[in-house]
Amino acid sequence: MNISVVLSSIEQGLVYAIMALGVYLTFRILDFPDLTVDGSFPLGAAVGAKLIVSGWNPVLAIIVASLCGLLAGVLTGILNTKLKITGLLSGILTMTALYSINLRVMGRANISLLGSNKIFELLTDLGLSEGTSTFIFFLLVVVIVKLVIDWFLKTEVGLALRATGDNKQMVRSLGVNTDLTVILGLGLSNALVALSGALVAQYQGFTDVKMGIGMIIIGLASVIIGEAIIRNTNIKWATLGVVLGSLIYRLVITMALRMRLNPNDLKLITAILVIVALGAPAIKEQFSFRKLERGVN
């Protein structure tokens, strides 16, 4: 791979890392199987793209898109906590509803952003090239999001969120409103997912109503690959692992495409990556045990 392909993969890894950090909040911190992601990702892209082609400032479009993602997460949280619908089904219901909502927002199945103002142009106006400005922008956003998550999870509210994921009943007995922490966690998670969707739409120059299919698997793959690389449970290391997992995932996908593998096999490659990341510790443990047995004998 030449350097431009590697940089392009890193850019994609960075922008999808924001989505992966959102998945990390629900999957690892809140212990919630949130499938809303497949709907909130295109929701962010749809709202952001629609506002931009309507003449809105790209920054305001991204903020509104993130807020829409937050509302989608809150809806899933309310379905789960107030209507007592299981977490998995709550996410599926919201994701299903968002498909129609996204079509309503866009007015058609896809929107092109060619010729529209994009947020990266804020840096190109400073004299930077398009490629450099995109890379610097994504890097800055990921670093800021990571640092904010690290800080938030150490606050009183963040600790309540983490405790809810660890043992909801115990936390409730201490007087914490776990319904509120679940709704808050889902809202924040999907706000990040929608933010990622809005940025991806501007990065690739279009949005499509089906662009969210399989996003939850990509997010989980990034989280799991990151955990396989960095096994430190400290929050700041864990979030760094998620970012690295997203970068590695994108590099592997790029390598697979450069090896002329069929693009239709990308989902299969993703599944294999997740299986390898999940199974590696068990395989390593078995090898260590057999090695120890041979040493004893």
UniProtKB/TrEMBL annotation:
The lineage of its organism: Bacteria, Bacillati, Bacillota, Clostridia, Halanaerobiales. It comes from the Bacteria. The chain crosses the membrane at residues 12-30, 59-79, 86-105, 135-153, 174-199, 211-230, 237-260, 266-283. Signal peptide: none annotated. GO terms for cellular component: plasma membrane. Keywords: Cell membrane, Membrane, Transmembrane, Transmembrane helix. GO terms for molecular function: transmembrane transporter activity. Its main location: membrane. InterPro entries: ABC_transp_permease (IPR001851). It holds the Pfam family BPD_transp_2. This is ABC transporter permease. It is found in: Cell membrane. It is a multi-pass membrane protein.
